[in-house]
Specification:
Helices cover 70% and strands 4% of the residues. The protein is mainly alpha-helical and 405 residues long.
């Protein structure tokens, strides 16, 4: 296995620099699990060490009590800071590091210290044992959230998602007119039926949440089912090697392309955590257009209902007095947004989102028009993975293709 070269300086081996640049690119693209030897100790928790240290310092404020005097709270916080910082300094010294540094490698001792140090001040200050247990549980939950967010590049994916969302706003009109013309006729027909309003009134907030979550889960499952074969094909090297090299040459993997130009690689099946990582990226990427369609449909229905349906009519359809959330008077006409109208619009908007998911991913014309950019991005990521793995993990590579291959 190729030795770890991620911390080499820019003046080191060009191959090491190329590897570092590609791995940073993987993180920026939201697929950090494509990095060889990617693990919690070397990558995830070490990258999150400053945030974890900040959390430890923040937990010292929990030593304060509203029913205590100012002097008592200052003393309690001082003791808590001393215990937490002293414990961390002692761990650093025991691990052979300077006492005030952040760890370059987060292992089991550091994780245990993060979980247990916040529990020591409540015990030292004579508080209840339940406070110490609560501190450990809260630290564990925070550690889990940080691990998931850092491990699967959720921050990088979120930044990419916002950029993509802004770029797609210009296509929203074309997206809606291409995807929903016939469905909107049906939606508007259902929208003006009093049974729909009675059902929405009967659902309540809990029922609305369950319906929206159900539609969301169904859309995600359909996306995974439709895109999994394509992901599997790309991961196995479904494209021609010259085409993959051409795609990778547009990325930081370009220096590695020359090394593997005369080689080919055998099938590189995705590991389970790579599958999960790609799944997160796919759900974020494809879900943006679905979210746009859902929100746009909901807003159209809300505007339609506010303009055309007075509160008296909404109350008659719902069978109970409508609860007015906001109201405004324009040219002598009172326009009101009610809770029932909001429930109906959210439910029908979620249904439109599910419909668009099925149409866009099962119809070749829809997919070519609306998801072509996402497909190209996915192909580029897998092309870089193939070049990266072939160049840096010789066990995965095979020799040059035979003549005429």
């Amino acid at each position: 296995m190729t030795p770890d070269v991620r911390d080499h300086s820019p003046g080191s081996d060009p191959r090491a620099v190329a590897r570092r640049d590609v791995e940073r690119w993987f993180i920026a693209e939201g697929v950090p699990h494509f990095i060889l030897d990617y693990g919690a100790s070397h990558f995830v928790l070490t990258r999150a060490a400053p945030l974890l240290a900040l959390y430890l310092v923040a937990t010292t404020l929990l030593a304060m009590r509203f029913d205590s005097t100012l002097a008592a709270n200052v003393l309690a916080v001082g003791v808590a800071i001393g215990v937490v910082l002293g414990g961390w300094a002692a761990l650093n010294v025991a691990r052979g590091r300077p006492w005030r540094t952040l760890p370059a490698h987060v292992g089991v001792p550091e994780v245990l210290a993060f979980l247990l140090l916040p529990a020591i001040p409540p015990i030292v200050l004579g508080l209840q044992l339940s406070d110490a247990i609560t501190a450990v549980v809260e630290s564990a939950l925070f550690l889990l959230i940080v691990y998931v967010a850092t491990s699967y590049g959720l921050l990088a994916i979120t930044r990419w998602a916002f950029r993509r969302l802004v770029s797609q706003l210009d296509d929203l009109g074309r997206l809606l007119t291409r995807a929903l013309p016939l469905l909107m006729v049906f939606i508007v027909f259902v929208f003006v039926q009093n049974d729909t309003w009675r059902m929405a009134q009967a659902m309540g907030t809990g029922g609305l949440v369950m319906v929206v979550v159900l539609f969301l889960v169904m859309a995600v499952l359909f996306m995974v089912g439709q895109l999994a074969p394509e992901i599997r094909r790309l991961a196995a090297g479904g494209s021609d090697w010259p085409d993959m090299l051409a795609l990778a040459a547009e990325t930081p993997a370009a220096p590695l392309c020359d090394e593997v130009r005369e080689s080919t690689q055998k099938a590189l099946p995705l590991r389970w955590h790579e599958w999960l990582n790609v799944g997160v990226v796919v759900v974020f990427g494809q879900g943006l257009q679905i979210l746009l369609v859902t929100v746009a449909t909901m807003l159209v229905l809300l505007l339609f209902g506010v303009l055309l349906f007075p509160v008296s009519l909404q109350s008659e359809w719902a069978g109970v007095p409508a609860d007015v959330l906001a109201s405004v008077t324009i040219v002598g006409r009172e326009l009101s947004l009610t809770g029932t109208l909001l429930t109906v619009a959210l439910t029908l908007g979620a249904f439109c989102g599910l419909y668009f998911t099925i149409s866009a991913l099962s119809d070749a014309a829809y997919r070519a028009e609306f998801f072509s950019e996402a497909d190209r991005s996915l192909k580029r990521v897998f092309a870089v993975r193939a070049v990266y793995r072939t160049a840096l993990d010789p066990a995965e590579a095979v020799g040059p293709p035979s003549p005429g291959a």
